[in-house]
Amino acid sequence: MDIVAIIRELLFSHDCVIIPGFGGFIGNYSPARTDKESCTFYPPAKRISFNRNLNQNDGLLISRISVAANLNYNEAKELVEDFVADIKRRLTRGEKVTFERIGTFVNNSEGNVQFEPDRDVNYNLNSYGLAPFQFPMLEGYDVRKRLMGDSYEDTVRSVSIRRYLWRAAILVPLIGALIAVPLTTDIFKTKVQVTSLNPLITAISDSGVKEKPAVDETRGLLSDSISEKIVDQVQSEQSTPAVNISEPVQQMPHEEYGIITGSFKSESNALLLVKKLAGEGYSAEIIQGANGFYRVSALRCKSLSEAESVKNSMEARYPGAWIVKLK
User: Fold this and answer.
1) Is the pLDDT assigned to residue 67 strictly greater than 90?
2) Per-domain boundaries in the chain
3) Cross-sheet strand order for the sheet of 16-19
4) b vs e for 280-305, b when ≥16 Cβ sit within 10 Å of the residue's Cβ?
5) How many helices (H) and strands (E) does the chain have?
6) Lowest mean pLDDT: which of 12-16, 102-106, 256-260?
7) Cα–Cα dist 210/191, whole Å
């Protein structure tokens, strides 16, 4: 009795054929595919794999053998059991067992059954009569050009021109808007104003090496100077009122004016500026402002005109200096 032939027959009509006590064959659908390297077309197929855990008797193989060999169920079952025992005995001896047009069994180094299917057989009935075939590669063949004839190139050209015109109609206004918006609005302008009121960038230490002056805990030298300048614009001081040099001021006898080159919250920063001015020959001093700032006066002048002249000569080195009436 050729049991392998019956298994092949069942694989055409069933997706799973179990050999009781040995394992089961599983049919897996594989769609049509094309191998571009070899220019070969393969039809849909049913590929066979093997699972040795599917060894419970489902009655399919034994029933088919019983009908084919005109045997009762128990006789057909004994026939299958002898068939399985022979296969296992041959595999144990290290032999390779081949099921013709199905695949090959062999025991691997770990003693497990390993199955290699026969890939030349297609068990998909829907692909009956279809065999793989090769086809020549078509190069430079355009179906649209073949159908439309000479008008194809003109159509492609007109479509390309329309596409470019549509892109230009969208991009040109957009680019114009992107250019116009920053020019006509202040949405990209920074809210931080840069000033040059800071009179001291570096201070000279006792060793003659330039080093950055001490900075207040929350604000630096620049912020100290700006803050005191703003406070003076909105708050008049009782003890040392500032002089508005944009308006004529009537000079009083025995008046003195100071040239303020810096104003700080930190006294240490003010002392650094005093030391620097003293090194340049000025009789610098610290004047305590009513608003809590330490003002650094480069020197005292007896008249407003003298103070303005000195301030103008110092503006190149101390931009933002201003005049304060001392008494």
Assistant:
1) yes
2) 3-134, 144-189, 203-325
3) 16-19, 23-30, 45-51
4) eebebbebebeeebbbbbbbbbeebe
5) 8, 15
6) 256-260
7) 32
Of 9-18, 95-104, 213-222, the one with minimum mean pLDDT is 213-222
- Cα distances (Å, whole numbers) of residue 282 to 210, 249, 285: 20, 26, 9
Let me know if the fold of 3-134 is the same as that of 203-325: no
Which amino acid type is present at position 161? I
Asked if 3 and 65 touch (Cβ cutoff 8 Å), the reply is: yes
Cβ neighbours for 182, distance < 8 A, ≥ 6 positions apart: 188
Contacts of 238 (CB under 8 A, 6+ apart): 290
Report domain 3-134's class. few secondary structures
Task: Indicate the class that CATH gives domain 203-325.
Answer: alpha beta
What are 131-149's pLDDT values in tens digits? 898 888 766 666 666 666 6
Handedness of CA 205, 210, 216, 217 (dihedral sign): negative
Helix (H, G, I), strand (E, B) or coil at 45: strand
Backbone φ and ψ for 134, nearest 5 degrees, come out as: -105, 150
Amino acid at 293: F
